[in-house]
Write a structure and sequence with these properties.
Layout (H helix, E strand, L loop, with lengths): L3 H18 L5 H21 L6 E7 L2 E8 L21 H8 L2 E6 L5 E8 L3
Antiparallel strand pairs: 1-2, 2-4, 3-4
Helix pairs in contact: 1-2, 2-3
Length: about 120
C-alpha cells in the first residue's frame, strides 16, 4: 500500500481506470463510486489499526458494487449521523448514504470489516 498520504488519491485513480476499462460512463455513478472509495478508504486509514486495506469494484448487472475491507481494530463502527456542517469531519457516511442505493457493513471471519455500497449504473 502506498504511504497513507497518497493511498486515497491512488485508489481514486485506480477506480477511474477500472471504470474506464469497464465502459462505465454514467457521471452520477462514477462520482458516487469515487466518493465511496475516498470516504471509506479514509475512514479505514484514520479509524482502524489496519496495515492492509483492500478496495474492490465490481459490476453486477445494472449495479456497481464498491467494497473497502480493513483489518479491524476500530473502537466503534462508523455509521451515518447528523453533524454540524461547520465541522470539518463527520459527514462522510451521510454523503455516501445520500449518493448510493444501499450501504452496509459486514464483519469478516478474520476480525476485519467490509463496508460496501451499491450504486445504480442507470439513471
Amino acid at each position: 500500500m502506498p504511504t497513507l498520504e497518497r493511498a486515497v488519491p491512488v485508489c481514486r485513480h485506480l477506480a477511474r481506470l477500472w471504470m474506464d476499462s469497464e465502459d462505465i460512463t454514467d457521471e452520477s455513478a462514477r462520482s458516487a463510486a469515487l466518493l465511496v472509495i475516498s470516504e471509506l478508504m479514509t475512514n479505514a486509514i484514520v479509524h482502524t489499526n489496519s496495515v492492509s486495506i483492500t478496495g474492490r469494484l465490481r459490476k453486477a448487472g445494472d449495479w456497481l458494487l464498491v467494497e473497502v475491507q480493513d483489518e479491524g481494530g476500530a473502537t466503534s463502527v462508523p455509521h451515518p449521523h447528523r453533524t454540524d456542517y461547520a465541522n470539518e469531519y463527520g459527514r462522510g457516511l451521510v454523503l455516501i448514504a445520500q449518493s448510493v442505493q444501499a450501504l452496509g457493513t459486514r464483519l469478516e471471519t478474520d476480525g476485519g470489516r467490509t463496508f460496501w455500497a451499491r450504486i445504480p449504473l442507470t439513471g
